[in-house]
């Protein structure tokens, strides 16, 4: 498990082993962890990760409602942006995440304008931040790199409310209107580098 996936610090994680995993070694070196891994443990990060895991476990049931809010958000946004695509909409997926392909305009323009409105969204997975290469996931689904330049990923936490999702939908509608107006005017398009 990766600590930052449930609110813990980055760079720390855990590995669950069965009682039958005798002789398992993930990293050669010293005798730490009964010889299973070498190196000095980052105790503050490990303890922080443990606290975050406990918190996440206590609030796991709070995440169940996120799929209802997310699905309503996607429906509302789809009525404003009929060409919007929701990746994985018909599949079983995590309850707190929406992965969208916007109908027009590069994702970085959406991200900047949504940020000004107080919403932090991303252009893809955190592990690919800054990577301009085409997404292997989108490629596997048959999408070209052009679609990848219009992707937005949204993640919510256990305290994200229905009104938060509704506010985000409203912000997306406002940004859509702003982008269309700026596109029809003589303003030059922002180029992402």
Report what the structure shows:
The structure is a single chain. The protein has 193 residues and is mostly helical. The chain has seven helices and three strands. 16% of the residues are buried. The chain has a three-stranded antiparallel β-sheet with strand order 1-2-3.
What is the averaged pLDDT score?
Answer: 86
- Kindly estimate the percentage of residues that lie in beta strands according to DSSP: 5-15%
- Rg: 20 Å
Low-confidence stretches: none
What's the arrangement of strands in the largest beta sheet? 1-2-3
Task: Label this structure with key terms.
single chain, 193 residues, mainly alpha, 7 helices, elongated
Task: Give the gist of this structure.
By secondary structure, the protein is mostly helical. Helix content is 40%, strand content 6%.
Write the layout of secondary structure elements.
Elements: H1 32-35, H2 43-58, H3 66-80, E1 85-86, E2 97-101, H4 107-116, H5 136-140, H6 145-148, E3 151-155, H7 162-184
Antiparallel strand pairs: 1-2, 2-3
Helix pairs in contact: 3-7, 4-7
């Amino acid at each position: 498990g990766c600590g930052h996936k449930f609110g813990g610090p980055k760079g720390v994680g855990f590995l669950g082993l069965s009682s039958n995993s005798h002789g398992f070694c993930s990293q050669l070196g010293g005798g730490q962890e009964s010889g299973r891994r070498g190196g000095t443990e980052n105790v503050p990060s490990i303890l922080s990760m443990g606290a975050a895991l406990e918190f996440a476990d206590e609030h796991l049931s709070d995440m169940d409602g996120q799929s209802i809010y997310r699905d309503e958000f996607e429906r509302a946004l789809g009525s404003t942006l009929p060409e919007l695509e929701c990746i994985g909409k018909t599949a079983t997926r995590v309850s707190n995440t929406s992965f969208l392909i916007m109908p027009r305009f590069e994702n970085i323009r959406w991200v900047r304008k949504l940020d000004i409105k107080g919403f932090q969204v991303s252009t893809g997975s955190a592990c690919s931040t800054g990577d301009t290469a085409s997404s292997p996931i989108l490629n596997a689904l048959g999408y070209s790199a052009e679609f990848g330049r219009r992707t937005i990923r949204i993640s919510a936490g256990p305290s994200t409310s229905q009104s938060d999702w509704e506010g985000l939908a409203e912000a997306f509608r406002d940004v859509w209107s702003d982008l269309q107006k700026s596109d029809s005017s003589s303003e030059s398009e922002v180029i992402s580098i």
